[in-house]
Every structure is written in C-alpha cells, then in structure tokens.
Design brief:
Length: 237
C-alpha cells in the first residue's frame, strides 16, 4: 500500500520496520511496539517492509495490517536492508520518521529514542550499542566505525545503530540511495554534510528477539570496502 492510497490525517510518527524472515516473533514485537507507542500519546503508523522473505513473514505482515489501522504493509520481492529502509521512507507520512532493526530493538528502547525526539524534535537521534555478542563482533564493529569516522569526519559512534529518528524537514535523509547495509553509513555521512545535529543515545541491551545476525567475515569485508568506495563517490568527503 502506497502513501497516496492511504486516507486520513498524516500521523505524527512513522516507524519503519524492515522485515526479513521474522515471522516467528513479528506479531509479538509489533504488539509490544504498539503498547508503548499508545502510551506516548502521539499518532503513529508502523510501516512493515517485508523484503525477500522465504518464511511466513509476508502473511504475518498482511494479517497485522488487516487487524490494525496503524499498520501498513509493503512487500518487496528482493531483499536488502537499505532497499527496505528506502521503501519505508518513501511510504512514510509522519513528520517524524524512524527506522529500526526489529530483531534487536525492544519496545522500551524504541520508546526511549522517541522520547528523546519529543524533547528535541529538530535533531537526529540514534542508538549507540555499547555491548556486542562476542569480542570478534566488537573488534569488527570497532574497525568499521573507526574507518567511517576517518573517511567521513564523523563525531558519532556505532554507524549501524538503530533506532534512527529524524524530522522530515531533514530532506537529504529522504533521498538515501543505498540498497544494502551501507545505507547507515550514507545516513550519517549526509548528516555530516548537511550539518544536521546528531545525538547518540547509549544502549546497553543485547536482546535479540530471534533469528541470527547476517554479519560474517565476508560481509564485514564488503562493508569495509563499501565504506571506502562510498567516500570516494560522494562529493565533499
């Protein structure tokens, strides 16, 4: 369902949730998000973007949309984190836009980041995860973040940390181009180029609702190389 096809007043918040083989826990997570969002007192929509799913995620998303007027479902036949985020941003109608990894984001963390936005609506708010599953992942993340900080002259840590929350008025963030995991590096790079203020919120939780991380040695190397290529391709870096 596209933004043009949906009627009614635009919500205050658009929460974009890329979905990839999350069917086993998707409904429970969405309902936990709805519970905390209802308490925040702002109108919202949850934009579920299934992408390249091979389990029952598409059917679960469709069912959640049928049950709740504040759930929107978009299905993409091809997978990709960046592709799903971009599709969600294109469909979002809220003045405040947020995207997050639903497999790793608890309802209290989502509520915390959105509460920061309530207090400071004209900045970018993003999570900065302080604990990783293993020393190997910690080391890999450190190398990647040091690379991105050097290449893009960044002051933030945890480039890939979500939730990321930003106002629609930050128009450059509505025009992201990456279809892969490097969309998060592009996001923070654009914040730096446009002088959008960014606040890192430390997150200590290591909760994972289900599934396994897709980050391995090969994907890590692709990201290291991709960040360098992105820095060479973009003006002003």
């Amino acid at each position: 369902m596209t933004a043009a096809a949906r009627g009614g007043a635009a919500p205050a918040l658009s929460i974009i949730l890329p979905v990839h083989n999350d069917g086993a826990y998707l409904a429970e997570v969405v309902r936990s998000y709805q519970s905390v969002l209802d308490r925040l007192g702002r109108s919202y929509e949850l934009v579920l973007v299934s992408n390249g799913c091979t389990d029952d995620s598409v059917e679960v998303c469709a069912g959640l949309q049928a049950q709740s007027s504040n759930v929107v479902h978009i299905d993409l036949p091809v997978g990709g984190w960046g592709r799903a985020v971009r599709a969600g941003i294109a469909a979002a109608r809220g003045e405040i836009i947020c995207y997050t990894n639903l497999a790793r984001t608890s309802a209290p963390i989502l509520s915390l980041l959105l509460s920061y936005n309530t207090a400071y609506p004209d900045i970018v708010v993003k999570a900065s995860r302080k604990v990783r599953d293993s020393w190997v992942r910690r080391l890999g993340s450190l190398i990647y973040n040091l690379e991105c900080r050097a290449l893009f002259d960044l002051a933030v840590w945890d480039i890939n940390g979500t939730p990321k929350v930003f106002p629609r008025s930050f128009s450059s963030l509505l025009e992201l181009t990456r279809d892969d995991d490097l969309i998060d590096a592009e996001f923070v790079m654009r914040c730096r180029q446009q002088d959008y203020p960014v606040v890192d919120v430390p997150i200590l939780s290591t909760i994972r609702h289900g599934g396994k991380s897709t980050t391995g040695y090969r994907s890590a190397i692709r990201m290291y190389r991709g960040a360098y290529a992105l820095s060479r391709a973009e003006p002003g870096t």
